[in-house]
Design brief:
- It is a single chain.
- This protein is an all-beta fold.
- Helix content is 0%, strand content 19%.
- It has a 5-stranded antiparallel beta sheet, with no helix packed on it.
- A hairpin with a 5-residue loop joins β4 and β5.
- It is globular, with a radius of gyration of 14 Å.
- The structure holds zinc ion (ZN).
- Zinc ion binds next to loops.
């Protein structure tokens, strides 16, 4: 149902086969992008994860993941990985 409300309702559903990683899966970012709003700096993945330009994330359960990847440097500059 499309209500046209302005609430930020995340209703992405993964219809891919095989299923993409769920939002609570550490590999959640491997899910497909279903909506991109570069002017606002975020993308919506099919598992409901909101992925921001700075690599921060907003999970469908309300959880927030701080930016965890450098966006303007090469990863090898950093000695350790947050994974
Ligand atoms: Zn999917």
């Amino acid at each position: 149902m499309h209500t046209g409300e302005v609430n930020l309702v995340i209703e992405a559903r993964c219809g891919h086969v095989p299923r993409c990683p769920a939002a609570d899966n550490p590999a959640r970012e491997a899910a497909r992008t279903v909506a991109t709003h570069p002017e606002q700096g975020w993308s919506l993945l099919c598992n409901g994860d909101l992925l921001f330009d700075d690599t921060g994330e907003l999970l469908p359960n309300g959880g927030v993941i701080a930016p965890h990847r450098p966006t303007d440097m090469h990863p090898e500059v950093f000695g350790s990985r947050a994974l």
